[in-house]
Amino acid sequence: MKGFRKGLETVSKQEEVEEEVKEEVEENTAKFSDENSVSDSNNKIPYQEIVDLYNKILGDRLSKTKMLNTSRKKKIKLRYTENLNSIEKWEELFNIALSSPFLLGENEKGWKATFYWFIENDNNYLKVLEGNYKSSKSPKKTNKNNSFHGFQNGMDYSEEELNEKLGLVN
Fold it and tell me: 120, 114 in Cβ contact below 8 A?
């Protein structure tokens, strides 16, 4: 019974924190919008246009975004009110991502960015814009003695050559 009560307290505390965060985000968004308000026609956030742009630029390389739900709209709105307040800035973000092998899955774990990853928090998109995921143009260092018992990396060998190198020729 004690564990059950503690579990309920944890859930209750989590709900309380989530509600506080929600209220704080709403207050900050309203405050930010008031401070930076522009004409009403410019205040409309082009949710679908942003998703369409992502799909156009990155959809062939990353998973396409198919639906816009309330959660995604809230995240887009937050990012829009922070820094990404024009379709051109979103385009810049997605084009930078397109030139990043890491974000496209060329990494040790094969992880790829998603639309949600870009909007998830106020750090991810900033790191992309700041160049943290740029491809390093410097060639990888290779060990020139990278051969295995006379075999060369990247070399295709015929069956006869393989047998000879392995000492299987009679």
Answer: no
